[in-house]
């Protein structure tokens, strides 16, 4: 996020709600809301409204999206006139392409009212330059070339329009306070910005039973890699699996919460891998059923799950991989929020992870790269899926040719190298009703995000950013945009090519252009706290930096810009 960013800032509130889990819809699937019966319709309406917000939020930035109003167009400017038949508009693209192929091949004659090259279309095919380019004279050619030059250098007026719609561009969504109260959920803000299409990251949240059947609150962040199938599987399954296991505990067994969560993570990964292995071994070549079972094993995903017990105000955070959760806790002495880590990144740079892996594979000292922290090329040391680091090479090679899988890792000798067993922390949360908060007592807030956010901003600075957001909202009497101290900026045209010493690179050291989000560049202007974090990770007041990231959207460089290394 920033490949698939999903930072979540929230004020903890009172608990006790129904069984429901929210998550975004992805291509070909629809997230469901599970609600047990209750009187009245208000909660159901609120729940549906919140679910629609999360589902309808874009998964990432699309530079070419149309900007309504005025003359702002984030799509390319009008293209050279292209051919158009008089078929229904719904089939326009297919008909144009097919007609063009038939027309130029000369194999089939199609009757039109006018010659095909005479009829023109004033609307470009979405997403790029015209597919068919027919010009009657040099003047039209020159006009087309001028438009192409404009597309390569979008007008700053259009870029200002994109910047004003930053929240939409990064897929921002949030619960309003009244919605959270009706759902009995803590206020939650989120966003998701992906460098891949479809984005490999997913998230889910909601309330579901915990020990003794009492309603707990859950939030999950799933940072996928090598495909979106594993993270999507976790979006559907992880909270229900954990909730089902916890609900089997009685109230006097809450000391077993940590071990139960750990066992459930491992159980779910074992199911993914066992079903995939069985399908790959016994199914015929190119079997669709086997392919569906293999997909979550071929891909991989980190997982970060938070489970909150409202009765005891205890928060359990389970981490597999390098997504991170931090808590902002009010310190009355300094009158600031301090950062309290809730998880530790699991990479080769983590000394305890390195020691664990080398102890399990004592004769393979080179499986961890000291420079990159990677385990056999993988950036994390724990993950769901990732068959190449869990199965033997002979079987992996069989799947390579039978089901188009990836080749075995060359250095893999004694798998498995990966585990999906999480490291779980427990923290007592300060949950104070809004009417009782003061300069000496304030509620905690939590930030959860995939590694893309943390590549650009430290945990401490992220907490400070949310604190500034809270202060701006307070000054604006509930609205950040109404903050009398709201910042103003120079136009993009004025700053676009201005040198920025905070963006550095080093050719000799092999370090690409890089930047960090630090307080002197914080821009606090969004009503959504998660979007505020995303904006600042992508430049903050350095507005031209954010536009550069958008300009690279859809290019191979995009992953370096928004996912880090």
Structure characterization notes:
The chain is α+β, with helices and mostly antiparallel strands. The protein has two domains: 10-64 and 164-346 and 382-563, PPM-type phosphatase domain (Phosphatase 2c, domain 1, 4-Layer Sandwich), CATH 3.60.40; 89-153, no CATH class. Helix content is 33%, strand content 14%. The protein is built from 17 helices and 16 strands. The two termini are 12 Å apart.
Q: Specify the CATH architecture of the largest domain.
A: 4-Layer Sandwich
The end-to-end span amounts to 12 Å
- CATH top level class name of the largest domain: Alpha Beta
What Rg do the Cα atoms give? 26 Å
Q: How much is the average pLDDT? A: 80
- Write down the overall geometry: globular
CATH level 4 superfamily of the largest domain? PPM-type phosphatase domain
State the major sheet.
Answer: 8 strands, antiparallel
Unreliable stretches, pLDDT < 50, 5 or more residues? 1-42, 59-127
InterPro entries: PP2C (IPR015655), PPM-type-like_dom_sf (IPR036457), PPM-type_phosphatase-like_dom (IPR001932)
Protein name: Protein serine/threonine phosphatase 2C
Region (Disordered): 56-82
Domain PPM-type phosphatase: 184-565
């Amino acid at each position: 996020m920033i490949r698939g960013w999903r930072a979540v800032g929230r004020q903890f509130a009172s608990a006790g709600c129904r069984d429901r889990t929210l998550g975004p819809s992805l291509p070909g699937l629809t997230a469901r809301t599970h609600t047990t019966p209750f009187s009245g319709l208000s909660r159901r309406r609120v729940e549906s409204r919140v679910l629609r917000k999360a589902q309808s939020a874009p998964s990432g930035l699309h530079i070419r999206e149309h900007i309504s109003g005025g003359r702002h167009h984030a799509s390319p400017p009008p293209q050279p006139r292209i051919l158009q038949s008089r078929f229904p508009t719904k089939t326009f693209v297919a008909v144009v392409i097919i007609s063009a192929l038939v027309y130029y091949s000369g194999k089939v004659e199609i009757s039109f009212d006018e010659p095909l090259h005479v009829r023109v279309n004033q609307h470009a095919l979405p997403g790029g330059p015209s597919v068919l380019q027919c010009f009657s004279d040099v003047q039209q050619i020159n006009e087309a070339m001028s438009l192409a030059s404009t597309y390569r250098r979008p007008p700053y007026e259009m870029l200002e329009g994109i910047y004003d719609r930053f929240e939409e561009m990064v897929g921002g969504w949030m619960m309003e306070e009244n919605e959270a109260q009706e759902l009995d959920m803590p206020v939650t803000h989120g966003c998701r910005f992906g460098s891949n299409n479809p984005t490999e990251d997913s998230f889910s949240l909601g309330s579901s039973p915990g020990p003794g059947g009492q309603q707990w609150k859950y939030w999950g962040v799933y940072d996928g890699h090598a495909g979106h199938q594993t993270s999507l599987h976790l979006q559907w399954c992880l909270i229900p699996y954990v909730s089902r296991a916890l609900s089997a505990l009685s109230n006097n067994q809450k000391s077993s919460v940590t071990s139960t969560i750990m066992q459930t993570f491992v159980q779910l990964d074992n199911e993914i891998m066992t079903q995939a292995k069985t399908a790959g071994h016994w199914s015929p070549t190119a079997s669709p059923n086997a392919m569906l079972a293999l997909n979550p094993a071929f891909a991989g995903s980190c997982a970060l799950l938070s489970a909150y017990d409202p009765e005891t105000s205890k928060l359990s955070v389970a981490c597999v991989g390098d997504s991170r959760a931090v808590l902002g806790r009010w310190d009355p002495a300094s009158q600031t929020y301090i950062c309290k880590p809730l998880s530790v990144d699991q990479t080769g740079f983590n000394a305890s992870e390195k020691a664990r892996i080398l102890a399990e594979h004592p004769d393979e000292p080179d499986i961890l790269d000291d420079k990159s922290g990677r385990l056999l090329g993988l950036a994390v040391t724990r993950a769901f899926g990732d068959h190449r680091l869990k199965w033997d090479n002979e079987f992996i090679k069989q799947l390579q040719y039978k089901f188009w899988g990836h080749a075995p890792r060359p250095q893999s000798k004694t798998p498995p190298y990966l585990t999906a067993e999480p490291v779980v922390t427990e923290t007592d949360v300060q949950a104070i009703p809004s009417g009782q908060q003061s300069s000496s007592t304030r509620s905690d807030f939590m930030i959860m995000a995939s590694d893309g956010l943390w590549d650009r901003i430290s945990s401490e600075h992220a907490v400070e950013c949310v604190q500034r957001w809270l202060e701006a909202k307070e000054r604006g009497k509930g609205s950040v945009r109404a903050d009398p101290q709201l910042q103003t900026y120079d136009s993009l045209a004025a700053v676009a090519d201005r040198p920025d010493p905070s963006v550095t690179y080093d050719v000799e050291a092999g370090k690409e252009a890089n930047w960090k989000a630090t307080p002197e560049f914080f821009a606090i202007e969004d009503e959504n706290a998660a979007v505020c974090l995303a904006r600042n990770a992508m430049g903050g007041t350095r507005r031209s930096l954010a536009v550069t990231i958008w300009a690279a959207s859809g290019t191979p460089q995009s992953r370096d810009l928004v996912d880090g290394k």
